[in-house]
Amino acid sequence: MLPKSIKTRLPTRYDVQGNRYLQFLGSHLHSPNLWGFNRRSVARATAIGLFCAYLPIPFEMIPAAIGAILWRGNLPIALAWVWISNPLTWIPLWGPAYLLGTWLLNQPSVPMADLTVQIITHHYIVLWLGCLLLGAAVGAVGYALVSLIWRSKVVSLWQRRRELRKQRKSHGSPHRLAPRDDN
Description:
Layout: H1 4-9, H2 13-17, H3 39-53, H4 61-70, H5 75-82, H6 90-105, H7 117-122, H8 124-170
Helix pairs in contact: 3-4, 3-5, 3-8, 4-5, 6-8
């Protein structure tokens, strides 16, 4: 149920399978779950990608790809979600995680207005704890939202089909709607 505009911008299965740097993964890249757009694989990919976006490490796409392979999530979607983490979004992502970590470990914290990437990285254990917990929470919420939205879309399509079938039955035409009366 992904819009075609999103599907056309994602790398294809053959682009990734043909990448020489990924040949060590062998047949794992041929799993249909890595490439299929169904509710479960996209929801898993969303959870994996959002969780990995919160990891305070460079190259978050590597753990996201590994996670998508291990938990059968859609690989392109998992990698796309990681892109929300970049140098412009580190403070909005990591700041609350840092404050959560300081609160949980009962450590003194720096006020949000004074937070910089350098200060946050000096408190790495606090940051990691907060990032892991907040990433897991955001990933779980992302999984639930994607599942809920996808399911509601499918249910609305089922209801629309059911209504069309009822209309066709009531007009006595088994295959199409009743002809228009142009008089």
